[in-house]
Amino acid sequence: xxxxxxxxxxxxxxxxxxxxxxxxxxxxxxxxxxxxxxxxxxxxxxxxxxxxxxxxxxxxxxxxxxxxxxxxxxxxxxxxxxxxxxxxxxxxxxxxxxxxxxxxxxxxxxxxxxxxxxxxxxxxxxxxxxxxxxxxxxxxxxxxxxxxxxxxxxxxxxxxxxxxxxxxxxxxxxxxxxxxxxxxxxxxxxxxxxxxxxxxxxxxxxxxxxxxxxxxxxxxxxxxxxxxxxxxxxxxxxxxxxxxxxxxxxxxxxxxxxxxxxxxxxxxxxx
Length: 271
Ligand SMILES: [Mg+2]
What we know:
SPP-like_dom, binds magnesium ion, 2 domains
């Protein structure tokens, strides 16, 4: 089990993990946030939200010096002092948003597929779909590398859409409300691996990674880290992990930020 002063990096999902599923508060996690910050352990927000949505939260959590992973891993946002080589704030896996939109629109014209993506509608419509305010919906629409869509057609057409997207190097991932179209090689797990390698290079020594998440879209992240905390979710999905090092997997009995703290208590030894 790692000590707090080991070369740790921690990846965390937001909704239902660090943030309460109902009121989005992280109060119960504050004592651990303070400890991690004092020990200079990087905490990397790893979420399906867009960069625009994460930015505000990241500064509320005092984490603006850290990278973050947005749009389910399709985009990695790098802090200013990481940008020396390429001088770009982003690492994008797979296709960018304009290309994804172009492919979707062309396929819809050709096959009469019945779907609507965020790029087809107004902020008011996205607000109605999601329960966000119109201002929040506008932030959720500032996309870099993935497109959420609602499917209104039949199963046969859906299978055909999936096949067509695959030929274009795109895949469909199921989220809470929407299907997400993004690059086939993109995902939370791949992004976590990419960043872990970068930390290792930067520091010139192996890092110990930990991941915390509550949903099916966190599974690839929980497979990719050294220590996995499966937070009790507000859903019926099983959270099966393929890994054999069962002592490195902890399943909490509390949800949200209470479970989040439970996970860190379980794995990290203070001295
Ligand atoms: Mg979640």
